[in-house]
Amino acid sequence: MVLTAFNAGFTGLEERFDAIIIGGGPGGLTVAYHLAKKGFRTVLIERGKYLGSKNVYGGRIYSYAIEKAFPGFRKEAPIERWVRKELLTFMTEDEAVTVELYSAKHPEPPNDSFTAYLTSFTQWIGKKAEEAGALIITGVKVDKILMEKGGAIGVAAGQDKLYADVVIDAEGINPVLIEGLGLKGRFKPEHVAIGVKEVVRLPSKTIEERFNLHGDEGAAQLFVGYPSKGLPGGGFLYTNKETITFGVVAHLDSVAEGKLPIHEMIEDFKLHPLMKNLLKEGVIVEYLAHLIPEGGIRMVPKLYANNLLVVGDAAGLGLNNGITVRGVDFAVESGRLAAEAIEKAHGEGNYAEQVLGAYYEKALNDSFILKELKAFRKAPSFLSNPRIYNLYPQLVCDLLSALHTVNGTPKKLYPALRTVMKRRKVSTINLISDLIGGIRSL
User: Is 71 helix (H, G, I), strand (E, B) or coil?
Assistant: First the structure.
């Protein structure tokens, strides 16, 4: 059952549950689904007026974790397109060089990815959780996690209180409740990016023609350089059935320093000649902004206390390794693992962190989440290198432009590279150092 209780608190509800989940994103709803399916009396509290109203992301989800959490999801989830075309674009103010990978069959399920509207996808998980027996309350903001003798015993919203054996914090990128408990400090601006995106409506046939797609094929494109105006960050684009989602991401510290308002970045990005051709005649139907965890393993706080677990963005579980940007699949997997840990701790009749936390920590360490975060622990530092965003896109575009210019002068690769490096003042030492750093980090 979904109970809309905007500004109404918990009036009329039974006071005690087996589990209380704070936050109705993919991570929290996955916990709710798996716990309810196992017979736990589960309540999820979402501050938005409806599920998905507070959820924003780029537009792409990787299938591996979704298949584990929701076997057979392909037959019922609200999927827009299956990504079959990967594009990486180096962009300057008036030029762009794109590297493209197209494959009709690789990667094979369950290692593929798809585009979806996060609101629809979140509501789909919510429906499954509801059908499994979870109670979902929307329109209520949890003000406090109630603690007693060092353990979580419930939550409070205004004067109303609910109690449970275990509390799961899934409140998102700005987890003020666990910050209040001292589990996590305020995030550092350099560990967080801000993303803005627009959704443009176009006929399905037009999208397929412009991106050379067929049927339910989709494209995912990342941009380096001009979209973030040479600052750490970049641009992105994903194709849906009848819309294109595109946007700009920039590190919060750069935006906070006032180097350039991010809304100006996205306006300039969509006016780039390449983007104008892709988006022409489209109608803007949505404009959204969101904070994104990009600090890697350094952002991950302590994820448990007595009778308490933390999942998803609240746990800092996001990854940008320069080629793939991950978030939803990490949230879903952490939610599934949290539910498993709770079930095991319940079997022992002990939700103390030495039991509950140990189960959760081991599961995360054994999962792809922490394995990937540890493998790419140097990626955030490497990706903060400004040369990646200002010099190298110019270098790539200048080099390809020179090689394709026929003016009676022979164009050999190495001399052309030396010429553009000199023009852009790129030192050989920096270039080699950055190449080695990229190989080691990514």
Answer: coil
Question: Does 256 score more than 80 pLDDT?
Answer: no
Strands (E), 24-95: 42-46, 60-62, 81-91
Measured distance CA(334)–CA(238) in Å, rounded: 25
**Are β-strands 81-91 and 113-115 bridged in parallel, bridged antiparallel, or unpaired?**
antiparallel
In which region does residue 379 sit, left (phi positive, over 0), alpha (psi from -120 to 50) or beta (all else)?
A: alpha
Give the residue with greater pLDDT, 104 vs 50: 50
Confidence of residue 102 (pLDDT cuts 50, 70, 90): confident
Residue 305 contacts residue 315 (beta carbons within 8 Å): no
Q: Which one, of 50, 372, 27, lies nearest residue 175 by Cα?
A: 27
Which residue shows structure tokens 């798996």? 34
Which distant-in-sequence residues (6+ apart) come within 8 Å of 73 by Cβ? 66, 67
Report how far residue 163's alpha carbon sits from residue 1's, in angstroms, rounded to the nearest whole number.
19
Query: CA 144, CA 317: separation in Å to the nearest integer?
Result: 22
pTM summary value: 0.93
User: What is the mean predicted confidence (pLDDT) over 121-135?
Assistant: 98
Domains of the chain: 2-75+118-185+301-379 (3.50.50.60), 81-115+186-294 (3.30.9.90), 390-441 (no CATH)
| Cα gap 369→328, rounded to integer Å | 11
Give the confidence band of 153 by pLDDT, cuts at 50, 70, 90: very high
415: CB partners within 8 A, 6+ apart: none
3-class SS of residue 287? strand
**Residue 6 confidence (pLDDT):** 42
